[in-house]
Design a protein that fits this description.
Rossmann fold; six-stranded mixed β-sheet
């Protein structure tokens, strides 16, 4: 495998499809795309590179009904190859008692580890504008915590880039978008954002938390 830093520099100025195509050629069936189904951009680009590319969806048990409906809408539109991973715990009240970290750990972080098991690389929708913790995210890197390659094709994209792609390709938005949900996670910890607020201000509002743990 070529030096990942060199590859990251190369893909910085290329379209997202380039890094996805490289990952498909390099890793084949040992590659998976972790999709939050917050928007259709990564999904649309990935299936246009490889029609049957595998997607990983983490069903936290706390998704909005609209999110689950949107998953099925996109599955039908593209004929998506989706692997769904569920928590190994029953629904509980960790989120209500303030243990947000513990809730994310059992509903996102641990299921992701199972979903990535046996893979050599994963593709994510992470973008630098999402949070300060992601500001320096490379397009391609070594994920030391998971001992695998991590590809962030959309790392350099702005919100305007995303909106432009959706409009140019006439893609369906998440049904909660028009109701003010600019960033969509689990229903207990997501609210609409007010005019002038940061796009992710509605995630874990009022808590000292900006990451769920998937990208830490």
């Amino acid at each position: 495998m070529r030096d990942l830093t060199i590859l990251a520099d190369k893909f910085e100025t290329l379209p997202p499809s380039a890094s996805i195509a490289w990952a498909v050629e390099e890793f084949g069936d040992s590659l998976i795309v972790a999709a939050s189904f917050e928007d259709p951009v990564l999904i649309d680009i990935a299936v246009n590179v490889k029609r049957d590319i595998e997607f990983l969806f983490l069903d936290t048990q706390y998704h909005f009904a609209e999110t689950l409906w949107y998953v099925e809408q996109l599955r039908a539109r593209y004929g998506l190859n989706i692997t769904t991973v569920h928590p190994e715990v029953e629904p509980d009240s960790l989120w209500a008692t303030g243990d947000l970290q513990g809730c994310c750990a059992v509903r996102k972080v641990e299921p992701l580890a199972r979903g990535l098991k046996g893979k050599q690389a994963w593709i994510t929708g992470l973008r630098r504008v999402d949070a300060p913790t992601r500001a320096n995210a490379p397009v391609v890197s070594w994920d030391a915590a998971r001992d695998m390659v991590k590809v962030n094709p959309l790392a350099a994209w702005t919100d305007l880039d995303m909106a432009g792609y959706i409009a140019d390709h006439d893609l369906p938005r998440h049904p909660l978008w028009e109701r003010g949900y600019a960033s969509i996670g689990c229903w207990p910890c997501t609210r609409p954002v007010a005019e002038g607020e940061d796009r992710r201000a509605g995630r874990w509002s009022g808590a000292d938390k900006i990451e769920c743990g998937l990208h830490q």
